[in-house]
Design goal:
Distance between the termini: 17 Å
Shape: globular
Order of helices and strands: HHHEHHHHHEHHHHHHHHHHHHHH
Low-confidence stretches: 1-20
CATH topology: Amino acid/polyamine transporter I
Number of strands: 2
Subcellular location: Membrane
Radius of gyration: 22 Å
Helix content: 55-70%
CATH superfamily: Amino acid/polyamine transporter I
Keywords: Membrane, Transmembrane, Transmembrane helix, Transport
Membrane topology: Multi-pass membrane protein
Protein name: Amino acid permease
Number of helices: 22
GO molecular function: transmembrane transporter activity
Amino acid sequence: MPPPRERPTVSQRTADPLTLDDDATLHAMGYPRKLTRRFKAFDNFAISFTIINIISGIFSGFGFGLNAGGPRILVFGWIGVSVMVLFVGAAMAEVASAYPTSGALYFSAGKLAKRHKGAWSWYTGWLNFVGQVGGTAATGYAAATFIQAFIALQWPSYVPSAHQTVLITVLIIVLQGLANTYTVHLVAVLNRISVWWLLIGLAVIVTALVVIPDQHQSPSFVTHFANNTGFTSALYGGMLGLLVTSWTFTGFDGSFHMSEETVRATVNAPRGIIRAIGCSAITGLILMLALVYSIRDYDHVATASAPPVQILIDGLGLGTAKFLLLIVIGAMLFCGLANLTSNTRQIFAFSRDGAMPGSRWWHSVSPRTRTPVKAVWLAVGCSLALILPGWWSHTAFTAIVSVNVVGLFLAYAVPILLRLRLGDEFQPGPWHLGRWSRPVGVVAVTWTALSSILFMLPQASPITPDSFNYAPIALAVVLTVATAWWFTTARRRFRGPISYGHPDEVAAMDLI
């Protein structure tokens, strides 16, 4: 294999990216083809739509929103944050069209930086990695929690415990690892199923909430405001409620990470990002309105251990509530599977450029399944490591996975910021924003900065060890380790994305 060399610049590629087929585009960026392209446009959209997963996100965060702003923030905050996330997604999609690789965010950061390419790429990659691992762990933990809620409804003598939650979470993540190990075709099929599961499940839940209850809240109830956070500032309490929507809208970089397995990736990957955000915004608003207007006793629901489940029980009865809860659990399981798939591709690409310990292991591809099997199990192992503290302390687990959203959105913002700094030197792909590129990018970076700060502020008062927001500490630990590692060894061996040769050379290395 020829030694890695400086990758051809964007301006050195074929002038019209539309004339490049998928393999030629990948070869122009210095990589041989090692993964199977089985993801069509719908499959690419499905991965991000499934990771965003409005059913999982809304049911997980609805209770927090009831106490941090109430219906006014849950509904109007959803609309406002969805628009902001669409700005972030559009700016990311433009970058994805120009650099359709599994490396996605970290790769584009290294290519868009004018100086210190290795450092920009390094920090973006590790923020993305930690955020995705935290997302896989958090989604599995949420699914385990709702599974236990279902069991408790079915068998009232069952008493959920932290140990049981951890064990169920471990089983879920291991099964998702096996699904990702078997074949990328299976994952694509499951992602297609997940889209219809979400859409049909949404229709069933919303229809049940609209038709079955004998009473609903008045139209003006959507303006009801509640601040039970413990903070005296209503503005601050309401701003905290925006986190419900922000928490839901994570993981749409999955379409970017699946670029090397997507046909016509320069167009289908960015479209997948935009469509996933847009569809999630609309369907999520419908679900949010259905839940809000089905609330009967606000205080009773707001103090319940699982407020959305309480709404279902109050309005639909125990039997129907249990059936709908199965839909919710299924959505969470699909979400975790898609999240793990995206996480695996990021590990594969990051290690391909030598940025992880044991890189030669993690970027290898199974000759039988054409999937990065070892990267799958590294992602599983890291997610399980985050789960284990939950055996002793729920607060410890929450502290670790809270970096999920902050890590991901900071990783989203870096290549967008660097693209803005590059100005007219940026060579867009076939999907681009044209003259709107700069204003969209500015809004995206500004919103990401503000929302990241919001995620690191205290979220409940009085501040105790149980209510303290450990996200800043978790993020500081990640950045400290990454910085120490960078200055001790990494900066001497990692220069950012590498090239395995000129296009004709890497074409000869294709393994498929």
